[in-house]
Amino acid sequence: MLGCLPVLRRCAVALSAVRAGRVCDEVLAQLEALIASGEWPVGSKIPPEPELVAALGVGRNTVREAVRALEHAGLLEPRRGDGTYVRATSDLGAALLRRARRCTALDVLDVRAGLERDAAATAALRRTDADVAAIQAAAAARRAAAAAGDRDAFVSADLAFHQAVVAATGNGVLVELYAGLTEALRHSVTTTDDLDDDPASFPGHEELATAIADRDPDAARAAVDSYLAAARSLVAPEGTR
Question: What is the CATH number for 32?
Fold first, then answer.
């Protein structure tokens, strides 16, 4: 999780004074952009109100109204006595996160299966050299985090790997939908991937990277089936999978 001070340093550059008129709408748009772009990552603490007021050149009530709107939308989460934190990157992500918290890990795995199997096959057919490099870099980060025993870094790298695969499809709608699932997927990955079980060798991920590089859609689908089957074995009792 990022501390407040690093976020503040970026905030001074990323935010700009707003014009007169629909002030709150413009403030809201700037804050949403910082969240959507990852400048304010999920889990990070946003700058305190006085800093936002100074950077935006607006009144406290305007900032409070914009922040409150984002809280109602589920993008921000106030924590009493601590501050306000980024909870999701979009309205869709917030809605999916709320829904994911009311369902089982198996439900999320079912959704992943539907999206990731076809995405993997499409990525194998459409991928560029840059896509392959991004997938391999994420796979390497995943291995490094596992070797270091850093669970948080591993989960982030694992999600980055799957997002890189989806990005290789070149389908903007699918990329946006999958981005909205990120928070629910983080919950799923945290539930199903256990560092004690050596996730570096968790079946399917390295094979998927190779299949996409080799432009082999059948092998890509098989790789997805492999890691999802392993995930199911961790969260579902025998006979319920």
Answer: 1.10.10.10
